Amino acid sequence: DPRFNDQSNTQTLERTQITRPRLYRVLLLNDDYTPMEFVVMVLGRYFRKSDSDAEMIMLAVHRKGQGVAGVYTREVAETKVAQVIEHARSEGYPLRVVAEPEP
Ligand code: TYC
Hints:
- Helix 1 crosses helix 2 (about 50-65).
- Strands 2-1-3 form a 3-stranded antiparallel sheet.
- It is of the alpha+beta class.
- It has helices at about 35-45, 50-65, 75-90; strands at about 25-30, 65-75, 95-100.
- Helix content is about 40%, strand content about 20%.
- It is elongated and about 70 Å long.
């Protein structure tokens, strides 16, 4: 019987191993110089936020000091950080963006 898959003819349940990737939060940090409209544009273009969600997230960061732009696997999160920083620097803005693992 093919279900009995060891020599003692006892049944062994085989399970497929599923490993969830660790997820990383991309955080936007507040500063005094980056224009609000640039942060809203970043949230739309790089984090696929609607205009109203982008506005709410930007204002939360402005008031509270930091906020979550999105949650991704490590490589995606790090790529978005690099892309946003490059874009901000190209415009002369000091915007800070970091990725941190979820607890
Ligand atoms: N504090 C900025 C201003 O008043 C706006 C801002 C919001 C900057 C969020 C960065 O991550 C940021 N122009």
